Amino acid sequence: MKGTQHMDQFTPKTMGQQFGRRSWAEPWKIKMVEPLRMISREQRQKVLVEAGYNTFLLKSEDVYIDLLTDSGTGAMSDRQWAGMMLGDEAYAGSRNFYNLEAAIQTYYGYKYIVPTHQGRGAEHLLSQVVIQRGQFVPGNMYFTTTRLHQELAGGTFVDVIVDEAHDPQSLYPFKGNIDLDKLEALVQREGAQNIAYVSLAGTVNMAGGQPVSMANVKALRQWSNQYGIKVFLDATRMVENAFFIQEREAGYADKSIAEILCEFCSYTDGAWMSAKKDNLVNIGGWLAVNDPVLFEELRNLVIVFEGLHTYGGLAGRDMEAIAIGIAESVQDDHVRSRIGQVRYLGDLLSAWDIPMVLPVGGHAIFLDARRFYSHLPQDQFPAQTLAAELYLDSGIRSMERGIASAGRDPKTGDHYYPKLELTRLTIPRRVYTQAHMDVVAEAVRAIYEERERTHGLKMVYEPKYLRFFQARFEQL
Ligand code: P70
Fold first, then answer.
1. Nearest CA, atom 15, ligand 1
2. From the CB of 120, is ligand 1 less than 6 Å away?
3. 62, 70, 179, 234: which is the annotated catalytic residue?
4. Phi, psi of 166 (to 5 degrees)
5. Does residue 6 have a pLDDT over 90?
6. What share of the chain is helix, strand, coil (3-state, %, to 5)?
7. How many whole angstroms from 74 Cα to the centroid of ligand 1?
8. Is pLDDT above 90 for 410?
9. pLDDT-based confidence at 201, cuts 50/70/90?
10. How confident is the model at residue 4 (pLDDT cuts 50, 70, 90)?
11. Per-residue pLDDT tens over the stretch 150-184
């Protein structure tokens, strides 16, 4: 029999066997499916040109496996969907707001909560209230929307992340850490009164999903207390950061993700959140602070831009789904399987020597386009090229995180030339299977084998704000 002959030639192994341990599986089963389809290579070529080689401009229908982002693309649980039916759509004082407030107080530990339509809504409010024109905002690497809101409020972002973060090959376990010497130098140069706050992010997105250690945030708290400088946390992927602390930092192996999350947040003065990531919903965000005076201001401003302070641009049902999502998101087995899936893809690609950021971070594989296409100069957009080639080969959608995303220096008008020129394969939460990861890995390998024949891109249309979303390119 054919099947038996096949078995004679090799012994298949489970993942667990390959790694010398017992296998584990996702802590859920699938109740509803969404069919996928793949259009032909000719069609992909056509729609890619129409989209100006920008994966943000593709239609979702033309995408086979969508790894553009983990933002709002996760699968909600049956409990969350049930919660959606309990939406209290009152204009003011919705029951769901109080459930959301209680969930944030319980799991993140902050006192006062302002809901927002998504993360950037919260960034906008915080930046407008806390930054005075001309002040500096040091942070552990920029994030596109965060930095833009800081700049629009008159602030200047200063990168104070450890040097290791800019080196895709450094295996330092906490590449998201703040370099306190850089922070101290900034204060010495500019004066403590000219620092708006420290902008600290968990699992730093642009560095490859790299974590911050508990020791680092503790030291940061002590440092900032000396000068009376506040620390605000981008908590978007802080649950995933807690997993890395549990795994890598002495003294935390026996603590739960929930305990680690709460301890970490306790060293900060407040946080903003894109609930579309860790909190397992398709839309939503929030801002949380401990200072009642600051809260008063934020609660007033939210009405101008988002909506009344008990809904902030969200439906009651959305707030209920976030409240339930928060409790699900801190379950240890959920986080382990989520990051485990990212690592599975990372292990395959690194075994084949595909250049990528190591260690593999929490939410995505970041291919190192600089080394992948070593013949392309950075102003020919190697990471954008990689995203386009991957789509063409296999219908897989990824995202540029390099020179196009970095934008221009508002003072000189020149491109920022970031050290990291990356293409992100972002894994949505609870959506794809291990077989999808195999397909993705093989596609990356296929375009890697073709790399020397690949041409770069030139930008032919450049919007003013966050250009990467809508820019258009042509092949050189
Ligand atoms: C992504 C998304 C959003 C995000 C984030 C961090 C660390 C804040 C936000 C904003 C979506 C995105 C945003 C800009 C460029 C590309 C993609 N990240 N902080 O895919 O939150 O989107 O809810 O306004 O990662 O990484 P929101």
1. 144
2. yes
3. 234
4. -90, 0
5. no
6. 45, 15, 40
7. 14
8. no
9. very high
10. low
11. 999 999 999 999 999 999 999 999 999 999 999 99
Encoded tokens for 426: 């972002």
The per-type count for the chain, helices as H runs and strands as E runs, is 18, 14
Residues 86, 317: contact at Cβ < 8 Å? Answer: yes
Alpha helices by DSSP H, 228-358: 238-248, 257-266, 292-305, 316-329, 332-351
Q: Annotated catalytic, 453?
A: no
pLDDT digits (tens, 9 = 90+) for 77-115: 999 999 999 999 999 999 999 999 999 999 999 999 999
What's the pLDDT tens digit per position in 344-365? 999 999 999 999 999 999 999 9
Question: Tokens representing 470?
Answer: 């809508």
Residue of minimum CA distance from atom 8 in ligand 1 = 119
Catalytic residue, from 110, 136, 143, 311: name it. Answer: 143
Q: Which sign, positive or negative, has the C-alpha torsion 116, 118, 119, 125?
A: negative
Q: What is the mean pLDDT of the chain?
A: 96
- The model carries a pTM of 0.95
Q: Tell whether ligand 1 has an atom less than 6 A from the beta carbon of residue 69.
A: yes
Q: Using CA atoms, how far apart are residues 126 and 146, in angstroms rounded to an integer? A: 10
Q: Which of 66, 71, 127, 147 to mutate to test the pocket of ligand 1 (most atoms within 8 A of CB)?
A: 71
Report which secondary-structure segment, H or E, holds 65.
strand 65-66
Dihedral pair phi/psi, residue 253, rounded to 5°? -60, -30
Q: Name the 3-class secondary structure at 233.
A: strand
Per annotation, catalytic residue among 55, 116, 144, 423: 144
pLDDT tier at 18 (50, 70, 90 boundaries)?
confident
- Which two structure tokens, joined as six digits, stand for 360? 């593999």
145 CA to centre of ligand 1 in angstroms: 7
**What's the pLDDT band for 1 if we cut at 50, 70, 90?**
very low
Sign for the pseudo-dihedral over CA of 85, 87, 89, 95: positive
Q: What is the CA radius of gyration of the chain?
A: 22
Q: Which residues of 251-290 are buried (b: 16+ CB within 10 A; e: fewer)?
A: ebeebebbebbbbbbebbbbbbbbbbbbbbbbbbbbbbbb
Angle between helices 41-50 and 382-394 in degrees, nearest 10: 150
Q: Is 22 a catalytic residue?
A: no
